[in-house]
Amino acid sequence: MPTVGVKRDLLFKALGKTYTDDEFQKLCFEFGLELDEITTEKQMITKEQGLVDAAKDASEEIIYRIDIPANRYDLLCLEGLVMGLQVFLGKIPFPRFTKVFTTAKGAQEKLLVTKSTAQIRPFAVAAVLRGISFTKDSYDSFIDLQDKLHQNICRKRALVAIGTHDLDTLKGPFTYDAKPPKEIRFVPLNQDKPMTAAELMEFYSTHAQLKAYLPIIRDSPVYPVIYDANGVVLSLPPIINGDHSKISLNTKNVFIECTATDLTKARIVLDTLVCMFSTYCAKPFSVEPCEVVSATGETTMYPDLAFRRETISVAETNDIIGIDEPAERMAKLLNRLLPTTQTGPDTLEVEIPPTRHDMLHACDIYEDVAIAFGYNRIPKTLPAKMHIAKQYPLNKLTEQLREQIAQAGFTEGLTFTLCSRDDIAAKMNAKIEQLPAVHIANPKTLEFQVVRTTLIPGLLKTLAANRKMPLPLKLFEVSDVVLADGKAEVGAKNERRVCAVNCNKTAGFEVVHGLLDRVMQLLEVPWDRATGYYLQACDDPAYFPGRSAAVLYKGLDIGRIGVLHPTVLQAFELTTPCSVVEFNMEYFV
Known about the structure:
Elements: E1 3-7, H1 8-15, H2 21-31, E2 34-40, H3 41-49, E3 62-67, H4 78-88, E4 98-99, E5 110-113, E6 123-129, H5 136-151, E7 160-166, E8 174-179, E9 185-186, E10 195-196, H6 197-203, E11 223-227, E12 233-236, E13 240-241, E14 254-260, H7 263-277, E15 286-293, E16 299-302, E17 308-313, H8 314-321, H9 327-334, E18 340-344, E19 347-352, H10 362-373, H11 393-407, E20 411-412, E21 418-419, H12 421-424, E22 438-439, E23 450-451, H13 456-465, E24 473-484, E25 492-503, H14 509-522, E26 533-537, E27 543-553, E28 556-564, H15 566-571, E29 578-584
Parallel strand pairs: 4-15, 5-8, 5-15, 20-24
Antiparallel strand pairs: 1-3, 2-3, 6-14, 6-15, 7-14, 8-11, 9-10, 11-12, 12-13, 15-16, 17-19, 18-19, 21-23, 22-23, 24-25, 25-29, 26-27, 27-28, 28-29
C-alpha cells in the first residue's frame, strides 16, 4: 500500500478548512483512507538515516503520511486527495474533464511511432497541458506524482515510462523511434555535455536512482528515443529526459509522453497525470489531446477522458452490503464518490470518470456505496446460515503431537522451508535429479534454491549451530515438506511430516525407536503388519549400512528410521553420531 506525504497546512488551505489531527483522521477513515503518521521532514530524515546532523537544515513543517489503496492512482498526490475529499464533503461537484483544441486550424500535436519500436517498447501515448501555472509546491507535487506512478503501476518503469517536457522549447510533430545506442546523442537532464546512449549507460551505472532502470533496455540492440521535428531529443525512455526540454516553474505548456510495453497501463498513467494537474491550466480540467500515429498508419487520439456508464440494482447493492437504503437516498450517498443518477425505482446509473480506473466491476461500485454509507454504520447481523467452525484436523493432530513429543524430552525446532540443492541431495548421499524437488526459478542466494523434501537437513544444521551445548541434543520438528507431483493442480503437494533426531556420544537408536513407539501408542496404532505399523530393514544411502529401516503402516512405506551415515554427519560438520526418525503423519488423520 503506497504512502503519500502531504504538507498539512497546504492540504488544509486547499480544502478551505482547518482540522485537528483527530478530526482529519476521522475524515480519512470515512473516505476509506488511513492517516498513518504525523511527522516532519526533519523527523523523517533523522529516522531514515539515524543522523541528527543530516536533518539540521530540513523543514519542520507538519507532514501527514496517508496510506492509499494500491489501486487508487488518483489519490497519489495532493491534487487528487483534495479533489476527492472536496467531492466527498459536497463542496464541489465531480469535475468534468474535457478535451480542448487550442492550436491553429484545429490541428493538434502529433506523435509518430516507427516500426522499429516494436523491438523494445511498442506503445506510446501523449497529451498537452496548455496554460499551466506552477508554484513551487505544485511543481514538486507534479514531479512526485510521476515518481509514485513509476514505482506503482509502472512497475519501476518496466511497463510504462513518463516524460514531461516544456512544449515551447520544441517543435512538432514528434517521432518515437528505436535506434542503435551509438546513433543516439543528446545532453541528458541536468548535464552540460552531449553523450551517446552507450556513454550514458556507463555514466549512470553508479547513479543512486537511475542505475536501477538501466537493465530494462541495456542489452537491447536498439534503444527507444523521442525526437521533435528539428531532431532535438526529448527523452531516452525509460532512463532519462533531455536537458533541452526540461520543465521549470516558468513552463506554461507541458508536453507529456508515455512509452510502454502495456498500452492499458500507459493510458491509465496518462489519464491520471493530466486529470490531476489540469486543475492548474488556464481553463481548469481541460486537456489538449495528441494524435498518435502507429507504425501501421492507424491514428488514435489520447487521452480518452471518457466517462463510462454502469447500471446497478439498488436491491442487490443493499443485499450485498447488508443495509436497507431507498434508491433516492443511495444515489445521494454515491454522489459523494461517483456521479450518479436514479433511472428507475430499483436502478442507478453510475458514471465512472477517467480518474477511477480501479472501477472494474459492479462490486467496486458496491464498495463505494459502503464507504459513502459508513462502514461503522452498517448494522452487525448474524449470518443467514449457521456455520460451526472447527480446527483443521491435520493442524489439530499436529498441535497434539508437538506437545506430546516435547513432553518426551525433545526440543522443538522450526527451520527454513527453502534450502540449497546440496542440503537435500549431495549432503544426504543422494542425486538431485532423482528427488521430487521443487526448484526456485531465480534464487537470490545459494541457501534458498529448492523447497525441502525432508526435514532432516534443517535439524542437522540446527545441531551444527549448537555443537557447544551439552549432550545429548534431542530435536524434533513437525512441519511440511513439498514434493513435485505432476497429478497435482499446481504441480506440487505439501506433506506433513514428523522428524526427530538424537545426537549423543552413541547413536542411541533406541531413543528415536522409543519415540516412534510412543507416538504410535498415542495414535492407538498397534504393532501389527496388517492393521498397524512395523519396521522393515532397508538400504538408504543417508543411513549407516545395516542400521536403517522403513517405517510401514498397513503395508505402506511412510518413513525412515536409523543411524545417519558418517559422511552425512561430516557434510553437516557434526562429529557425534546421530539417529533419526522421519515419517508422514497424514495417514493418521
